[in-house]
Amino acid sequence: MARHERWVMLTTLVLLQVVTIVTGVYAVDNDLTLSALTRQPPPAEPTAPPEVPVVTAGPVLAGLAARPGDGPLPTKGTLTRRLTDALGDRALGDRVGAVVVDASTGERVFAANPDAGIVPASTTKVVTSVAALASLGPDTRLATRVVQGGAPGAIVLVGGGDPLLAGPRAKPGSFTDQASMTTLAARTAAALKQRGVAKVTLSYDASLFTGPDVGPGWKPGYIPDGHVARVHALAIDEGRQNPGQNSPRVADPSRHAADAFAGLLKKKGITVAKTVEPARAPAGAAELAKVESAPVYALVEHALTYSDNDLSEALARHVAIKEGQPGSFAGVAKAVPQVLQRVGAGGGIQVYDGSGLSTRNRISAGAMAGLIALAVSPDRPGLHAVASGMPIAGFTGTLGNGRRFTGADSKGQVGLVRAKTGTLNNVSTLAGLTTSKDGRVLAFAFMADKVPVYAEPVLDRLAAIVARA
Q1: Is 307 a catalytic residue?
Q2: DSSP secondary-structure letter at 118?
Q3: Which of 19, 100, 339, 439 is 20 to 30 A removed from 88 (C-alpha atoms)?
Q4: Residue 219 is among the residues annotated as catalytic for this protein
């Protein structure tokens, strides 16, 4: 495949990315924490949501079908020599795993320390995303609901585990599928007025997620520094005090969301009792109103492109619940490997959270590269959002921040690599896919967790070597 043809193919994918991925904001540590997604203003009065066709993730990667025989494999001797030389860079430290596989067949083209469990940082989100797509399905949406309480005039706000639920101060934008607390309040008020109810007591139910709301292996500064919120099933603006990247996280995301909802109801002419407390929604309670998130495939794309910690934690918990486990960190640790085993992924993956903030996570380079190859298989269209969600070198997300693929040994591969980044203290990882110069789709994983210095340029160089193979 000629170089200009590869450029056309990947430029097309960039345009698809613009269409399918919402705008995010770069932040430090573990790659990203994200401000609330943008959205269009809600209608002045609540209306029934329009009937729209369900769009699956299937066609997103039509141009990336990996067909056996789609060009010869790179010469192993040459690729091995170049990668081995680059892996000797002192910036990577003395604990590195590296694997390159042919996405069509799963054959290893290169391997160095392939089975060692490495702290993966944010490349954990690849694992979370595969599990979410395989378990929940690409078209599933997360619903936030309001139901009748157990007493006359009582209503319950029920968290559905959607951290991207937009609060009342979220700025209007272009992402039409984002659920909005303002819309939920408008629909609730309309339903109450239709029933002749103008005064209510409000409680909130965030029991969908259980257990500790801070992950095992998380550093104490992650929440105060704004890299992630406490994990609650009810939250607005990803648990931020105000929409926006640099806003501090609130101490209690569920109460913060419920208080905001009470204020919105009041603006719609509903009197709300002063006390708003947590409570379980009655079993089988009648639903008054609901709003739904974007489909899971779009959430996965967003989580990967912008390395969204909060969204990844929520998706992991939904996987745990779907697989019959508690919606907790412990449930995630049991459910995610269960799903991976079901889809045919091998061992070498141990996770304790969904975002990769946990320093207890361990993933081998062989397992990571194999999982990416699985996700881009033409036989697995439901997993293709993993590939379409990966940042594009020099263009999007954590690879489009002006710092990546800028070296003399990697800038020529801008636009030719899609990969998930990972960064923690002394940890630097990069895992993704590219096409060889002859058009062969290759998946790779480069992972190091004893990094003494800034190592991202070396990882970019490694990925560029694969793209030039």
Answers
A1: yes
A2: B
A3: 439
A4: no
